[in-house]
Amino acid sequence: MSKKQVKGEYIETDTGNKVSRKAVLIGTQHIMLGGKTVIQAEATIRGDLARTAQPTSSSGAAAPGSNTAVAIGRYCYLSKGCCLRPPGRIYKGSFTFLPLRLGDHVFIGDSTVVQAATVGSHVYIGQNVVVGEFAIIKDYVRILDGTVIPPNMVIPSFSVVAGQPARVVGEVPEGGHEAFELRDLYKTVGNNPQPMAV
């Protein structure tokens, strides 16, 4: 009788992504992961909400990768129960979804819903946050727990945001940019986790 290899809680890809077996990824052909991204249990990514109205080009064929619904950068961390959905609107007479793009080193807290058009790099989004459709979050932004960002809001770089509805309540201090690095957090997750460096 041969020994059966025990399955770990995470599926680890060739590019270093760690995806929980309990995460819900719908429409995986429309989801791009940049590498070294952690997706926790019960996190949902709605890749099935891809663009329905294809842009027409002179050759008649869509450019490769143009039908990506959700693009996630490197060293991103999607916490338990969060949801990423592409924003949608009426375009040329029919309803369509547009891509949701996350930069590098983006942390998304528990039970947070993100429907932004773009989230920059080195962004921390707290727990129970709602990011409205077509919001644009620039680089080095910290969004505090329980914040509700209205649709189409643009949040400038180096901002601290809170409130319902959201408003800028401060700025990220000089030298506070190292707090956005997620490389150490990445190492603490997976089938062979390492302790967090102090």
Throw out a few tags for this protein:
3% helix, 198 residues, six-stranded parallel sheet, mainly beta
Description:
By secondary structure, the chain is mainly β. It has one helix and 23 strands. The strands form four sheets. Strands 1-2-5-8-13-16-19-22-23 form a nine-stranded mixed beta sheet, with no helix packed on it. The chain has a six-stranded parallel beta sheet with strand order 3-6-9-14-17-20, with no helix packed on it. A hairpin with a 4-residue loop joins strand 22 and strand 23. It is globular, with a radius of gyration of 18 Å. Residues 57-65 have low confidence and may be disordered.
Brief overview, please?
By secondary structure, the protein is an all-beta fold. It has one helix and 23 strands.
Number of strands: 23
N-to-C terminal Cα separation, in Å?
44 Å
Alpha-beta content class: mainly beta
Q: How do the strands of the widest beta sheet line up side by side?
A: 1-2-5-8-13-16-19-22-23
Write down the oligomeric state: single chain
* Global shape: globular
Number of helices: 1
What's the SSE pattern?
EEEEEEEEEEEEEEEEEEEEEEEH
